Amino acid sequence: MSSFHVLIPAAGSGSRMGAALPKQYLPLLGKPLIAHTLAVFEAAARINSIHVVISADDALWDELHIETSPRVSLHRCGGASRAETVLNGLHAMAGQWQEDDWVLVHDAARPGLSQASLTRLLDTLQDDDTGGLLAIPLADTLKRADQAQRVARTEPREQLWQAQTPQMFRYGLLKQALQQAGGVPTDEAQAVEALGLSPRLVTGELRNLKITFPQDLAIARLSCLQMPRRIQHDQNRQRF
Description:
- The chain is α/β, with parallel strands linked by helices.
- The protein has one domain: Alpha-Beta Complex (Spore Coat Polysaccharide Biosynthesis Protein SpsA, Chain A).
- The chain has helices at about 35-40, 60-65, 80-90, 115-125, 170-180, 190-195, 215-240, and strands spanning about 5-10, 25-30, 30, 45-55, 70-75, 100-105, 130-135, 140-145, 150-155, 160-170, 200-205.
């Protein structure tokens, strides 16, 4: 049976936050933001291992004394882009994962993932030929702006989804996709699409937002406040 492994690229600087720290290390309820992200996967019994990829010169991880479980491994081989960081992480695990093992790539600054969404992703894709990702159908009207920041036109939103993470693909397939990707894919699904494959969309939740701007932290606080109770509830259900 294929195993489930998580890879978290955490080599970015988070420049759009306008903060002194990279956003994955910003304080959230007394802990670095990435600690909340890791806690979701550490609470999931089906996840076999968790791998965090940071920059070679990242000193903050050690300075912040981030507590992790034995399932978490740290790799100091981050690249100049997300795609390069993920690929470097895959190479770092060569020989430890099977080609058909599942890799769940998840944003370091996306702490609001629920156990329900994670379970739905695993259940939906574990026998899928391609893999896929969490995403939510777009509900808002979309406007395309011109260079003066005025509306150029309204874009149809039918069949449009907003991509989230985790994005879940077989180890061998994902490595091939990133090695062959032209340009710089913005997510793993785009690289897999370039191979002529169609990743499956699995419905996620609004709470699973990526922390990009300062106001996003307020929403993240609400999500993470609920997380311990949700995790305990899920664990109680599993016992009974």
